[in-house]
Amino acid sequence: MASFIVYFLLITIIPIWASMRVKSSYNNYSKVPNSTNMTGAEVARRILDSNGLYDVAIEEQRGFLSDHYDPRSKVVRLSSANYHGNSLAATAVAAHEVGHAIQDQQEYAFLRLRSSLVPIATFGSNASYFFLIAGFFFGMTKLALLGIIFMALAVLFQVVTLPVEFNASSRAMDQVVSLGIIRNDEERGAKKVLNAAALTYVAAAAVALMELLRFVLMYVGLNNSED
């Protein structure tokens, strides 16, 4: 019982902690204007054009930190605060999303892999618990194993996401520095925003791996009880 409580606390606290880190870093640097006074939309356009991505559009997106790159539509979508804002936080987030557009242009292997995993991961995430619950409830090891396989596919998506996000942040920093969008003394702030955002993906992957491990151990226990 004690171990379950510890486990429950970990999978609850880790994502909350990561989310708080993101909000704290973002809020701090959303109050610090960049030295070039460029908005997030202008930063994104500058980097896109510098990399020959003239066909990639930039759109304003509602919501808090709802920023993302849509590879199907070839659109960088920035939340209103980052689209119009000229802060270091807006600069970092906009550059990060353009980093994904550059990955798409250069056919970055992990981005291609993650895109190919989307339908499998979505199905695995939705179906895994049905098979797991049914398998453990009725003592059907094959059904439980199928659920674990489906869950593992969803976890694989989370793991593959990590290099995609870290690489996009690395590209973002290279671009804003080489294009003179931020000064040397502003790099630390931009990196803090990007590193905090990366923590959310690390936390999600860690929780997913812990959940997978829990069911694997339950499956082993179920198998042993049948012997």
Automatic annotation (TrEMBL):
It comes from the Bacteria. InterPro entries: Zn_peptidase_2. The chain crosses the membrane at residues 6-22, 117-138, 144-164, 198-222. Keywords: Membrane, Transmembrane, Transmembrane helix. Pfam families: Zn_peptidase_2. This is Zinc metallopeptidase.
